[in-house]
Amino acid sequence: VQQFAARQALAAETAQLAEKLEERKLIERAKGVLMQRQGLSEEQAYRALQAFARRQQKRVAEVAAALLKQ
Fold first, then answer.
1. Residue pair 20/61 in contact by the 8 Å Cβ criterion
2. What's the pTM?
3. How many whole angstroms separate alpha carbon 47 and alpha carbon 60?
4. What pLDDT is recorded for position 1?
5. Strand, coil or helix: what is 39?
6. Exposed/middle/buried for 62, CB within 10 Å: 0-12, 13-18, 19+?
7. How many CB atoms lie within 10 A of CB 20?
8. Helix, strand, coil content of the chain in percent (nearest 5)
9. Is 70 helix (H, G, I), strand (E, B) or coil?
10. Do 56 and 21 form a contact (C-beta atoms < 8 A)?
11. 41: left (phi over 0), alpha (psi -120 to 50) or beta
12. What is the structure's pLDDT at 35?
C-alpha cells in the first residue's frame, strides 16, 4: 500500500513537471515571437509578457499561448 501511494505521488509529480515544461516552452516561443515582431531583447519580451499577464489577471503561460494562436 505504501509503495502504491509513493508511485501515485511520483506519477503526479511527473505529470506536474511535464506540464511546467510545456508551459516554459510556450513562454519561450512567445518571447521569440515578440523579439522578432517588435525587436525586443529576451528580457524585454519576458517583461512584456509578465506585464500583459498582470493586466489581464492571467498566468504568463496563458498569455503566451494566446499570443501564439494569433
1. no
2. 0.85
3. 10
4. 85
5. coil
6. middle
7. 11
8. 90, 0, 10
9. coil
10. no
11. beta
12. 98
Rg (CA), the chain: 16
CB atoms within 10 A of CB 30: 22
What span, in angstroms and rounded, lies between the C-alpha atoms of 4 and 42?
A: 43
Which three cell numbers mark 17? Answer: 513537471
Q: Which residues contact 1 (CB under 8 A, 6 or more apart)?
A: none
CA 67, distance to chain mean position in Å, is 12
- Check: CB of residue 53 under 8 Å from CB of residue 63: yes
- pLDDT for 20-69, tens place per residue? 999 999 999 999 999 999 999 999 999 999 999 999 999 999 999 999 99
Residue in this structure with the C-alpha cell 489577471, named with its chain if needed: 57
